[in-house]
Amino acid sequence: MEIKYSSLEQVIPQGQAFLVPLKNFFLADGSVLEPDFLKAGGYLQAEKNKFFLQDKLLVGSNFYLLFTEFVEKESFFWRKEAYSLAVITLSDKGYSGKREDESGPLVLSLLQNKMDFSWTRRYVLPDSRESLSYLLAHLIYFLKVDVIVTSGGTGVYPRDITPEICLKFVDKRLSGFEQAMLISSLQKTPHAMISRAVCGLAGESLLINLPGSVKAVKENLEAILPALPHTLKKFHGDPEECGKRP
After folding, report:
1. Cross-sheet strand order for the sheet of 83-90
2. What is the dihedral of CA 209, 143, 40, 17, to 10 degrees?
3. C-alpha atoms less than 13 angstroms from C-alpha of 48 in its C-beta half-sphere
């Protein structure tokens, strides 16, 4: 994964605050400062050539920002009008441009036909533990994206690492989602039993693993789509009783 280094002046516009995908800060002399940002929701703000980190003044000429190529800067003051959605395709060939990503657009289409989203992003990553870990941390702890769907890396190929990485972020497993997808897929092929897809709640995000093939993406996602709106409502604190009938 390509790592880019930039001075604060290059990445933080004056007078604005941004959530940024921080790995760490380091001083110009090479010594490292590693603040605990991921769960704190760290942000940087620039004002009159001064830089503030969590409201603490930094010396801009001595600090540099380390960030990864695939993450965009998002406004700290961004407000959601509806749910937010991020779709991540894990594919070495897709990332290198040797294969067109078809599963990501399909996930977006199926979900947008079912629910309203005010913010969507689609990413294509290699089957890399580091890349997926950094991006999930950014989406879950910084942007607090409502729905995060991954496609690919759920099987037993040596580079299939999606479930292992996602489990590090999941606070509560949604075994019903996982079982519904498995049952649906087993009706089509016995090969579905090797899927290790994980679904669960991570921070304030609903995290869903899907297989990589377009056919399997459609089958698995359609199995859980009917439950998604209700799941998100309850996850966000809807007090209405689940078994209540009109």
Report:
1. 117-125, 83-90, 147-151, 205-210, 199-202, 172-173
2. 160
3. 1
pLDDT of residue 244: 61
- Give me the percent of the chain exceeding a pLDDT of 90: 52
Are the C-beta atoms of residues 31 and 66 closer than 8 Å to each other?
no
Q: Which tokens sit at 105?
A: 């657009």
SS in 3 state form for the chain?
Answer: CCEEEEEHHHHCCCCCEEECCCCCEEECCCCEECCCCCCCCCEEEEECCEEEECCEEECCCCEEEEEECCCCCEECCCCCCCEEEEEEEECHHHHHCCCCCCHHHHHHHHHHHHCCEEEEEEEEECCCHHHHHHHHHHHHHHCCCCEEEEECCCCCCCCCCHHHHHHCCCCEECHHHHHHHHHHHHCCCHHHHHCCCCEEEECCEEEEEECCCHHHHHHHHHHHHHHHHHHHHHHCCCCCCCCCCC
Highest mean pLDDT among 2-11, 60-69, 112-121: 112-121
Which residue has 């289409």 as its token pair?
109
The CATH class of 83-235 is: alpha beta
Give the model confidence (pLDDT) of 137-158 as tens digits.
Answer: 878 877 789 999 999 999 999 9
